């Protein structure tokens, strides 16, 4: 039926039935049209369904862990892993064994270094008298020399060839003890990628590829080249050294508080040097291995949500992370009496405060949730109760009581943000799995709720 109006659009015109349409053709055409509409409606419905689904299931959450070196980023990540990817965490247990062995060796070398510097000082008449090293200690010093080799072996195996990182300095195998002391101030560090894990699997498997370990506890623990052979042979001597009253006196004088240092295992020597030693969850959390660079991890938190956790600590990274939903900022409050390893002029707490100020005032991060972890509260408490005065390092603290309640509320780190936002602040000791679990659960819930609220606003 031709229409009489002239202002009809060309499309309608094109779709018009032909003027000479037969009843059969007409029936066929109507059937085809109905079918096309049916299909088109299904597509529309599907699109609509997808749109609603997208609104309901928000994009994955991206969380950045930020803080100075040794603030606890990797340790927090391990907690995420325990909670949301326990299989992967378990699988790496055997790899951490060697890290812990290296941590033990490092502690021993810190003691031996303290002895050496005491000997050197004793020779210069100007200094105050040093406690004299006993014959027994001098013998221990000699007997523990093989540990130098163990340290080199472990370091070499931990840092894959060509990792190209200057901080992951390999110790020169020909270096003298004094040379080594200098290089020891540099920690062993690994790239955040998984290259070191690959290198390790090979190492644990031995030269003859006796077994691909990949963290399977059924490693060949009887490998004669395993560092644990020397380590367990030295265990008794290490214990003698650590428990020696002169050593304790020396360490006190040099203000070396090993118990509070990262990767301290000397109180569990028998256990961690045993040939069949496999680290516990707590051991893995207390193990210390410096991370270089940024790593990204994905976790499934609920059936719909995934989380990225990325670790980094340099403000230079910040512009790359403006699409983060949240930053967990770690400030080790126990570090109030320490200087940065990379710049001994800078107090570590002050450095944390400066980094935090930079973050809260950064325009790129104005839509990012900020969660502050005032970490290492356990060490903080120990320090304060052992008589270290907070006000000696934070002058503005004045004469307030030197206890955790007061110092932790002193507001040092609670800087105001340039944009109005909610702050979440937690006192943490991320080496404590139980308390960290409830904090991380809480953080996840807050972030998911915020994410859902944002999605609702957009709809
Ligand atoms: N006692 C105690 N030790 C902690 C706490 N948090 C972290 N540590 C230990 O401190 C050391 C450093 O923690 P990491 O997680 O390696 O620090 P990081 O921020 O990843 O440091 P980098 O990799 O150098 O950037 C590790 O040996 C941890 O076991 C804490 O709350 N209490
Ligand atoms: Mg790290």
TrEMBL record:
Cellular component annotations (GO), alphabetically ordered: cytoplasm; heterotrimeric G-protein complex
Binding site for Mg(2+): 291
Top-level taxon of the source organism: Eukaryota
UniProt GO MF annotations: G protein-coupled receptor binding; G-protein beta/gamma-subunit complex binding; GTP binding; GTPase activity; metal ion binding
UniProt cross-references to InterPro entries, sorted A to Z: Gprotein_alpha_su, GproteinA_insert, P-loop_NTPase
Region span, Disordered: 1-26, 159-178
GO biological process annotation, one example: adenylate cyclase-modulating G protein-coupled receptor signaling pathway
Biased composition regions of type Polar residues, renumbered to the chain: 169-178
UniProt keywords, alphabetically: GTP-binding, Magnesium, Metal-binding, Nucleotide-binding, Transducer
Binding site for GTP: 285-291, 375-378
PANTHER family: GTP-BINDING PROTEIN ALPHA SUBUNIT, GUANINE NUCLEOTIDE-BINDING PROTEIN SUBUNIT ALPHA HOMOLOG
Name of the protein in its database record: Guanine nucleotide-binding protein alpha-4 subunit
Organism: Tricholomella constricta
